[in-house]
Design a protein that fits this description.
The chain is α/β, with parallel strands linked by helices. It is built from three helices and eight strands; from the N terminus they run H-E-H-E-E-E-E-H-E-E-E. Helix 1 crosses helix 2.
């Protein structure tokens, strides 16, 4: 929707609302997969002033301000599509690959954005579409939650800084990922399951895939 059209719709709604109605701001990207900020926007955003959610908040905020409406946003980053996961903006269902986005912060580097939050539960299916094996909308989709964990923002991985940075966790050279093994009784982690990491006392082999370290504290069957 064009920014001016969207702002005009909101203005109409507010005019029809009770005189005591108050509007603090807006939520954006809920149940969607757009990044908050990107230096490598996908080709389908060409020509748009809103290639990411920060720029969208700026563009729509300007249109809102012209009509005397609030310009405050909170941005959902519960799920973020990986580069190349979508061929067009309209793809919205259980996008793969994707990962959990950056954690909650009010350090947004955008005066229109009050906070980055998680709104959509990451393991909740969008419907029986997108990634293979998806259940009905609203049902728990374990394989999808595992994928989101594998591709999570560095700040929420074990050993991440937790401060909005982008540096991944260091790999412990003294504890490299080993080859897939078979434990007695077949007690191995499933695909996407944890199989190692400092302090880990669970299975260290994979029923499927290879045990791969993603940091000092976490290894996963991939």
């Amino acid at each position: 929707m064009h920014m001016c059209t969207a702002a005009a719709e909101v203005q109409t709604i507010m005019q029809k609302a009770d005189s005591n109605a108050k509007l603090r701001g807006f939520s954006s990207n809920v149940s969607n997969y757009n990044p908050y900020q990107t230096n490598n926007p996908p080709s389908y955003t060409a020509g748009s002033p809103s290639a990411d959610e920060s720029r969208y908040a700026t563009s729509l905020g300007n249109a809102m301000r012209e009509r005397g409406l609030p310009t405050n946003f909170i941005i959902d980053q519960g799920r973020v599509a990986q580069n190349g996961a979508r061929k067009e903006w309209g793809e919205w269902c259980n996008i793969s690959p994707a990962g959990f986005g950056q954690p909650f912060t009010t350090n947004t580097n955008n005066p229109n954005v009050d906070a980055i939050v998680w709104v959509k539960p990451g393991g909740e299916s969008d419907g029986q579409c997108g990634m293979s094996g998806a259940p009905v909308a609203g049902a728990w989709f374990d394989a999808y939650a595992q994928m989101l964990t594998q591709n999570a923002h560095p700040d929420i991985r074990p050993g991440g800084s937790g401060n909005g940075g982008t540096n991944p966790s260091p790999t412990n050279p003294a504890n490299p990922p080993g080859p897939t093994q078979t434990a007695p009784g077949g007690n191995c982690a499933p695909m996407w399951g944890q199989c190692g990491g400092q302090g880990w006392s669970g299975p260290t082999c994979c029923a499927q895939g290879t045990c791969t370290a993603s940091g000092q504290w976490y290894s996963q069957c991939v």
